[in-house]
Amino acid sequence: RKEVEQDPGPFNVPEGATVAFNCTYSNSASQSFFWYRQDCRKEPKLLMSVYSSGNEDGRFTAQLNRASQYISLLIRDSKLSDSATYLCAVNLNTGGFKTIFGAGTRLFVKA
Amino acid sequence: GAVVSQHPSRVICKSGTSVKIECRSLDFQATTMFWYRQFPKKSLMLMATSNEGSKATYEQGVEKDKFLINHASLTLSTLTVTSAHPEDSSFYICSASTGVETQYFGPGTRLLVL
């Protein structure tokens, strides 16, 4: 079983749609959680950290369920510019830390 | 702030040669740097973690003698792919951290081994 699993997609949605990404992780000792956005042939960019209380940044909402070891990202009113790959990431405590990434979910937003 | 650079951005080399990739934190001191590899349509795979002045910690399955990592200063880490082969062709990305859980990614280096 992969340490961090995501639906590979792709998701094809029209502009204005709401799209949900899901992610599960296997290591119960995981300590922090993130969503990254990666554009084609570029490095990943941090989209948001994910907290149990849920957090929102404009059209983006992230949620963590530690009991189910599940992380979600919701994008409302999707824009063409949201087209990218969305990566779920989990930090493990190693004394320092190390990050395990999911394989990513590709999103295409179409006019 | 928190800018990380990588050099070169892309490199093409012949099989059997060695390639060095530099990762620099430009405006902060990075106690820890990470090296990742990403194959097309695949996720970033952590290769190794390096701390300034100490030996890198390699992930399982990553050959330390093939992927030499040096973290000589708080702003520079290098990854050398020794005796590169076509299967080493990939996108190599570094990130730098001050030790708190945030990491800043470099723009990546695209390696093609012919």
Can you put this structure into words, describing what you see?
The complex is a heterodimer of chains A (111) and B (114). Chain A has 111 residues and is mainly β. Chain A has no helices and 11 strands. Chain A has strands spanning 4-6, 11-14, 19-25, 32-38, 44-50, 55-57, 60-65, 70-75, 84-93, 97-101, 105-110. In chain A, the strands form 2 sheets. In chain A, strands 2, 4, 5, 9, 10 and 11 form a 6-stranded mixed β-sheet that branches. In chain A, a hairpin with a 3-residue loop joins β9 and β10. Chain B is mainly beta. Chain B is 0% helix and 54% strand. Chain B has no helices and 11 strands. Chain B has strands at residues 4-7, 10-13, 19-25, 32-38, 44-51, 57-58, 67-73, 76-81, 90-97, 103-105, 109-113. In chain B, strands 2, 4, 5, 6, 9, 10 and 11 form a 7-stranded mixed β-sheet that branches. Chain B is globular. The A-B interface holds A 31-32, 41-46, 87, 91, 94, 96-104 and B 32, 34, 42-46, 49, 51, 57, 91, 93, 97, 99, 101-103, 105-108, 110.
Which helices and strands occur, and which strands form pairs?
The complex is a heterodimer of chains A (111) and B (114).
Chain A lengths: L3 E3 L4 E4 L4 E7 L6 E7 L5 E7 L4 E3 L2 E6 L4 E6 L8 E10 L3 E5 L3 E6 L1
Parallel strand pairs in A: 2-11
Antiparallel strand pairs in A: 1-3, 3-8, 4-5, 4-9, 6-7, 7-8, 9-10, 9-11
Chain B lengths: L3 E4 L2 E4 L5 E7 L6 E7 L5 E8 L5 E2 L8 E7 L2 E6 L8 E8 L5 E3 L3 E5 L1
Parallel strand pairs in B: 2-11
Antiparallel strand pairs in B: 1-3, 3-8, 4-5, 4-9, 5-6, 7-8, 9-10, 9-11
- The count of helical stretches of chain B stands at 0
State mean pLDDT of chain B (0 to 100 scale).
93
Poorly predicted runs of chain A are none
Radius of gyration of chain A: 14 Å
Order of helices and strands of chain B: EEEEEEEEEEE
Query: What is the string of helix and strand elements of chain A?
Result: EEEEEEEEEEE
Topology, number of strands of chain A: 11
β-strand percent of chain A reads over 45%
Low-confidence stretches of chain B: none
Q: Structural class, from secondary structure content of chain A?
A: mainly beta
Shape of chain A: globular
Q: Tell me how many strands of chain B there are.
A: 11
Helix content of chain B: under 10%
Distance between the termini of chain B: 37 Å
| Oligomer category | heterodimer
User: Terminal Cα separation of chain A, in Å?
Assistant: 37 Å
Gross morphology of chain B is globular
